[in-house]
Amino acid sequence: MLDVRNRRFLAALLLAGLPGPLFAHGDVAPQPVNTDALPEVGEEWLTENPYRADAAGEEVWKAAVKIGDSGFNQNCARCHGLGAVSGGLAPDLRFLEAEEYGDEWFAERFQHGYTQDGTTKMPAFGPVLGQKAGWAIRTYIETRPEDGALDSHTDRLRAIVADLEAGTADGVAVKEELQQINSGVKTFSGAPVADSTVSRAAEVLSADKASFKHAAELLTLGLSAAK
C-alpha cells in the first residue's frame, strides 16, 4: 500500500503529466555545479544515492547538501520551486522517498529528462552536470523539512534570536539546543535528518560571539519564511 508521501508524489506526477504546456524548460541552458568537494563516484550511474550520511559520512553529506542547494536553485527551481517547494506545475520532489525507488526515479529523470508530445518538459541534465551534481541535488531535495516543522518552536526560536542579537546567549548551550530541536524535524521524503534553518544556525554557532550574528540572521530568515 502506498504511504502518504508516495500518494502525494504520484498525484503531483499525474498533474505534471496532463496535456498542455504546464511546465517546460525550453532552451534554458543548465548551469554548471562545482562538485570538487565531493568524492568521485565513477562514470557509470549508480542506482542509490552515495552521499547519504550513513554511507558517506556526515561531512560528505553536509557538503552534498550545500552543493545540492546551489545546484537545485540554479537549475531546478524555475519549475520545481525555490527550496524545492513546488507551485503545482511540476512534481513536488520533496515527497520522493529517500530510498531506492526514489533514487531510481530521480536518476532516470536527471539523466534523460522528460519529453511530452514533442515538448521538452525537462532537459537531460545528466550529460551536462554529471553524476556527482545529480546526487548532490538529490541529497538536498530529500532533506527538505515538512511544512510547519518548526511552528511549535517559534516562540523559543525568537527568544534565542533576541539573546544572540544581544550577545547574552551561551553559544555552546544554544548550539546543542538547536541540534536537539532539529533532531525532531521530519522530512517529507522520510530521510532521517532534515536540513533546516535550525540545523544551519547550529552549524555556524559556537562559543565565539562573532558567530552569533550569522546564526541569528539564519534563524530570523527561517522564521520570516514560515509566516
What does this structure look like?
With about 230 residues, this protein is mainly alpha-helical. Helix content is about 50%, strand content about 5%. It contains 11 helices and 2 strands; from the N terminus they run αααααββαααααα. It has helices at about 5-15, 55, 60-75, 75-80, 100-110, 125-130, 130-140, 155-165, 170-185, 195-205, 210-225; strands spanning about 115, 120. The protein has a two-stranded antiparallel ribbon. Strand 1 and strand 2 form a beta hairpin. Helix 3 crosses helix 7 (about 130-140) and helix 9 (about 170-185) runs antiparallel to helix 10. The radius of gyration is 19 Å and the shape is elongated. Keywords: Heme, Iron, Metal-binding, Signal. This is Cytochrome c-550 PedF. One of its GO terms (molecular function) is electron transfer activity.
